[in-house]
Specification:
Strand content: 25-35%
CATH class: Alpha Beta
Number of domains: 1
Distance between the termini: 33 Å
Largest sheet: 7 strands, antiparallel
Order of helices and strands: EEHEEEEEHHH
Length: 138
């Protein structure tokens, strides 16, 4: 797994989970790897569910699955996880862009040091630039 940290104006900003879900959902972000006091907002960047832009969030008041929960944004990063595709494709893990990251995230990576192409970092920066212009951050 490789990653690239992205400095952003959203770091430390706070809003409700409902507002974040509404506005970041327009950029195809979904809640991933969460519990009631922290989690990540992820957006898939590739068509194989191996490259994501991930925004950490921490709950400051409430519980994360509540739309009124107050959350604070952490430092975004780009994440590349190269997982095995062989037999999983035959049983449907690979068939959905939404299911693949959920099912494949528990697999051991094929190459833990897989390089993160500059093109993915650039694409993530473009997405992050649009997110930073969201009304919840201005």
């Amino acid at each position: 797994m490789s990653m690239h940290i992205m400095r952003s104006a959203i770091e430390g900003k706070q809003t409700t989970f409902g507002e974040a879900k509404e506005h970041l959902g327009q950029e195809e972000f979904t809640l991933a790897n969460w519990d009631y006091d922290k989690g990540y907002l992820d957006r898939q960047l590739d068509d194989k569910a191996m490259v994501f832009i991930r925004i950490p969030v921490e709950v400051r008041d409430g519980e994360l699955d509540d739309s009124q929960a107050l959350i604070e944004f952490g430092t975004p990063f780009v994440l590349r996880h190269v997982y095995r595709t062989g037999n999983e494709e035959d049983i449907g893990y690979y068939s959905s862009q939404y299911a693949a990251p959920l099912l494949n995230q528990f697999q051991e990576p094929i190459d833990e040091d897989a390089a993160l192409d500059q093109a993915w970092i650039q694409k993530a920066q473009e997405v992050l630039s649009r997110v930073e212009k969201s009304p919840i951050f201005t």
